[in-house]
Structure formats: structure tokens, C-alpha cells
Design goal:
By secondary structure, the protein is an alpha+beta fold. It has 2 domains: 2-114 and 252-260, Diaminopimelate Epimerase, Chain A, domain 1, CATH 3.10.310; 121-244, Diaminopimelate Epimerase, Chain A, domain 1, CATH 3.10.310.10. It has helices at 33-43, 74-86, 129-133, 154-159, 164-167, 210-221, and strands at residues 2-8, 17-23, 48-53, 59-64, 69-70, 93-97, 100-107, 110-116, 121-123, 140-142, 147-150, 175-180, 189-195, 200-203, 225-230, 236-243, 246-251, 253-260. The chain has an 18-stranded mixed sheet that branches. A hairpin with a 5-residue loop joins strand 15 and strand 16 (236-243).
């Protein structure tokens, strides 16, 4: 099977978020779930995507962290669309996933994903969350998958060094920490994403988190189109457009590696 490593939500190699992409088109029967999980553990990226072409020309798409299968992943979907477009597969691309049918439109180097919006609502601050980050957390929000908290500014966000072992005990998939962009920045908000509970200590750029961040900051700023920068060491940029129950996520990607799986 052909396999790729793609840096997503960036236009330069070694930036953004690396994702494995495995083309399972020739597999008959389809690969077993246990095998896909083993491959994802071998890749050790935040997510590895597995694509299988359907008879109608669409693709089935599944995502795995090194530990678990997940319901939604933005950067590995962007990486998958980038790979298919580079192989000449015509768009728009349609992916059948655990989160329904997702589409990707490729326009030169830019890829736009159609994803479900996941707006947050206030919740009790989970036990252990503030201690894990070493900060006060007076208010928390959730989309029933992740917890979102806002910190005072981008410099506070950049300096966070959470206790990952303690954070692993917080009962949620991951924690999105966000702040408004600094005055004069070419983006609207910044964020970081931590999910050690599912095998991802810090995700470099998290498309699915922007399904919550877009509605959160859109309401705060009164804007329907925004740009977010994720302040991981690799950094990455995600454009977000709010469309009611859906969001458009926009970004670029670069292929780092192409090869053949031998297992």
C-alpha cells in the first residue's frame, strides 16, 4: 500500500501538523481495524488517515491516533485531500467518515474542508484541569468532546507547560486553550491543543478544534470569517468561515515523504 507523510496547515515542510496517509484502494478485504491501529502506532503522528476508494468514486476515511480511533480530524483530512489531488483525483472530494460526509475543494495550493460546527457551551471546570496547567481557570466550555478555556493573552498561552500526566486524568478527549491575537496581528486568535488521554501530548495544528474555536471567536468578535494560528513549536494557520451548522476550514499542505508499506 502507498503511504505518505504530509505536513498540513502549512506551506513549508517541517511546519504545521504531520499526518500519515495510507491508500487502501487495492486492499480486498478492507484492512482490519487492529492493523490500522498498529500502523498508526508505528507512524506515531497525532493522526494517521486511511483512505479506501468506493465504487461511486468517493472515499471512506478513518483516522487513528497512536492509541485510539477518533471521530473527526481536520489536519489528516486536509492531508488526505492534498494526496488525492496530487495524484490527479478530480474534485470536489467526498469522504465518508464517522462524522458523516465531509467534502474538500482544492484550489491551487489551498484546500477548503466542509466540516460540522461544534460550538461550545459553559460547563463546570473539570477536576484537576487548573492544577494541570498551573493557572486559574474561572470559566470552562465544552462541545461534549473537548474542553475549551481562554487565557488572558497570547504570551500566557505560549508559556504554558502543563503537567501532562495530570492532564491525562481530566475526563475529556482534549483541552483547547485559546486567547485573542495580539494587536496588529494578521490573525484573529491563537490556540494550543493538548490530548494526552488519547496519545497526543500536544497537537501541532488541530483542524477539529477550530470547529469549536470558529464559533467561539466568531460570536466574540462578531465576524463570520476568521483566521487562527496554533502556537505549537511547529505552528500552523487555519482559516475558518462560519456557515450555520457547518464551518469551512482552509489551509495548505506539503508532502514530506512517499513510500510503500511492507506490513
Amino acid at each position: 500500500m502507498r503511504a505518505f507523510v504530509v505536513d498540513a496547515f502549512t506551506d513549508t515542510v517541517f511546519g504545521g501538523n504531520p499526518a500519515g496517509v495510507v491508500l487502501c484502494d487495492l486492499a480486498n478485504p478492507p484492512p482490519r481495524t487492529a492493523w490500522m491501529q498498529q500502523v498508526a502506532a508505528e507512524f506515531r503522528h497525532a493522526e494517521t488517515a486511511f483512505l479506501r476508494r468506493r465504487g461511486d468514486g468517493d472515499h471512506d476515511l478513518r483516522w487513528f491516533t497512536p492509541l485510539v480511533e477518533v471521530d473527526l480530524c481536520g489536519h489528516a483530512t486536509l492531508a488526505s485531500a492534498h494526496v488525492l489531488a496530487s495524484l490527479g483525483v478530480p474534485g470536489p472530494l467526498r469522504f465518508h467518515t464517522r462524522s458523516g460526509v465531509l467534502t474538500a475543494t482544492v484550489d491551487g495550493a489551498a484546500i477548503t474542508l466542509d466540516f460540522p460546527a461544534q460550538p461550545v457551551h459553559p460547563c463546570a471546570v473539570p477536576d484537576g484541569l487548573a492544577a494541570a496547567f498551573g493557572i486559574e481557570v474561572p470559566v470552562a466550555y465544552t462541545n461534549d468532546v473537548d474542553v475549551l478555556v481562554e487565557v488572558p493573552d497570547a504570551s500566557t498561552l505560549a508559556a504554558l507547560a502543563p503537567d501532562l500526566r495530570a492532564l491525562r486524568e481530566v475526563p475529556c478527549r482534549g483541552v483547547v486553550v485559546t486567547a485573542a491575537a495580539e494587536a496588529g496581528a494578521d490573525h484573529d486568535f491563537v490556540s494550543r491543543f493538548f490530548a494526552p488521554r488519547v496519545g497526543v501530548d500536544e497537537d501541532p495544528v488541530t483542524g477539529s478544534a477550530h470547529c469549536a474555536l470558529g464559533p467561539y471567536w466568531g460570536k466574540r468578535l462578531g465576524r463570520g470569517a476568521l483566521s487562527g494560528v496554533q502556537l505549537s513549536p511547529r505552528r500552523g494557520r487555519v482559516g475558518v468561515e462560519l456557515r450555520g451548522a457547518r464551518v469551512s476550514l482552509r489551509g495548505s499542505a506539503v508532502t514530506f515523504l512517499e513510500g510503500q508499506l511492507r506490513a
